[in-house]
Amino acid sequence: MKYSAFSLLKNTLSGHKKWPPAWRDPHPKKDYDVIIIGGGGHGLATAYYLAKMHGISNVAVLEKSWLGSGNVGRNTTIIRSNYMLPGNNPFYEWSMKLWEGMEQDFNFNAMVSQRGVLNLCHSDPQRDAFARRGNAMRIDGVDAELLDTEAVRDMYPFLDFNNARFPIRGGILQRRGGTVRHDAVAWGYARGADRRGVDIIQNCEVTGIKTAKGKVVGVQTNRGFIGCKKLGLAAAGNSSEVAAMAGLKLPIESHVLQAFVSEGLKPYIDGVVTFGAGHFYVSQSDKGGLVFGGDIDGYNSYARRGNLPMVEHVIEAGVAMIPGLARVRVLRSWGGIMDMSMDGSPIIDKTPIDGLYLNAGWCYGGFKATPASGWCFAHTIANDAPHKLNAAYRLDRFRRGYMIDEKGQGASPNLH
Amino acid sequence: MLIKCPYCGTRPVEEFTFNGDASLQRPTSNDPKTMDQWFDYVYLRDNPKGRFDEYVHHSGGCRAWLVITRDTQTHEVFGVVTARDYAKKRAKA
């Protein structure tokens, strides 16, 4: 059923008791053409684009828990395409263009809000670095503006412009960046995939990957063996565990990232503001809560919760940037598992095993990439070859010396 | 997370800097034919869900290098030894 003003009116008249389920809850078949491990944003987007762009709908998405319980429901909702390196920004810009058409495309309100993403700078060299990044963006046809102190003051007068350690010298602004309602992205892609014939199997944990003569034949799950011709891994923070089932060791460490929501406040932070030097970023949700976070805790973790020192560090940075935050109460904090890669950039590629495809290494930046990741992974699986946009995200780039290292930190996952 | 440094006693986690998997074996050869071993060592990780030996620097305290055995799912700390003792024990094995 298509959501529309007409369907809303019709269901209002019948007391909202006749809305059909947004997606089915089928039993897994004996086999499929394609199985995707991981029912998060990327896995669901992949299934959606396999069906929509490639006509491949004999697909199952296997999710070990309930749909949306992973990072797609835990992130801080930011979308942007302001990366610098050539292998990176065209991909993120394609994702931005997909965000812009998404709600009409999958007939679901995802609250795509292009309210602007502003990164603050605090010194001349940092402003030079921002100018370089902005120019790299513009070379790829992406919007970028360099603001001075007064222009930042116009947008956000409540920032601490007198901060002695980090005076605000300006910032780089991407007006088309913003926020999206993260749960709706999972639901919209799930519903869209399901309507096109994809089976979404929840509470189905993959316990083994079966291969024969170097080719994938299927997966063992807690709901039985399911055969497939092609298998896509989209397990985010659990990628190492799943890849090990196929005998693969990945250039990935899993780390915890914490995020926070404050009590509801009247609207006053109109866009996304980031204080990179202090590791803090914030936006305000439509419910009024401030959604904010900082850096990863720094140690390997699958716990989905972090420790108090990082909570204190993030909030100190927030109060340094916005002194008025000192009186705001934090409502909720949580953590997610970040698949930190060895260069801070993702992997969307075939693997040495025939019919096995890998989508991993998103670090803490996977949400904004959801549409393009699904789109490119679907292309890679359907054609058994990467698209131009994910051609640089090769698994063997570390071996060959073609790392995509935006921060220039080298082979230390916890520094990216 | 509280960590019992062998020199300083029990200290809170913010005094420590983490530096990854301590179970890795650094290759000893400069022969280009051992490039695969170097690649494994620099880039590939087991990344276990469960018991994990990691290098930790007591950067905010005595600055000793330690190896902590910790569960990455529960954060339970099973043991803390100096990096030297860890290396000695591994050499014996």
Structural notes for this entry:
The complex is a heterodimer of chains A (416) and B (93). Chain A has 416 residues and is α/β, with parallel strands linked by helices. In chain A, helix 2 links the parallel strand 1 and strand 2. By secondary structure, chain B is an alpha+beta fold. Chain B has two helices and six strands; from the N terminus they run βββαβββα. In chain B, the strands form two sheets. Chain B has a four-stranded antiparallel sheet. In chain B, strands 1-2 form a two-stranded antiparallel sheet. In chain B, strand 5 and strand 6 form a beta hairpin. The longest helix of chain B has 10 residues. The N and C termini of chain B lie far apart (30 Å). At the A-B interface, helix 7, strand 12 and strand 15 of A face strand 3 and helix 1 of B.
At the fourth level of CATH, the homologous superfamily of chain B is: Folate-binding superfamily
Helix content, binned percent of chain A: 25-40%
Straight-line distance between termini of chain A: 44 Å
Termini separation of chain B comes to 30 Å
Unreliable sequence segments of chain B: none
Biggest interface goes to: A-B, 25 and 25 residues
CATH architecture of the largest domain in chain A: 3-Layer(bba) Sandwich
> In terms of structural class, how would the helical and strand content of chain A be classed?
alpha/beta
Topology of chain B as a string of helices (H) and strands (E): EEEHEEEH
Helix content of chain B: 10-25%
